[in-house]
Design goal:
By secondary structure, the chain is mainly beta. The protein is 7% helix and 45% strand. The chain has one domain. It is globular, with a radius of gyration of 13 Å.
Length: 114
Amino acid sequence: MNSLFVIAPYKYEGMWVFDDPAVGLSKEPFIAGIDTMIDKVVASIPDADKGFRAIFSAAQFPGSRFELKWPGAESGGNWYYSDQFKMEGWLCPALLKYFSRAPGEIYVKVEPKG
């Protein structure tokens, strides 16, 4: 099993989404606060709305700059809290395409594509 995962979110119809054919996802949206966190983490990436790379893991790794902590589950998905942004966001059940269960922490690195 991979310990690092990579997706390339982009804006579609005004929403942050991503595709991952390897796990059967197409235009999977980020909602309920995660979209707002994305706006904040990509503010310095030119043309991020056209796509950026997000590397994530349940374990801290070199270059990870953002940490999300799990406070609980709701509606089949999981809430995560960011100390950096002092806010929560909800990740839908698609999270379980990458992890066997919701991890206690998720570490993220974002960077331009290409």
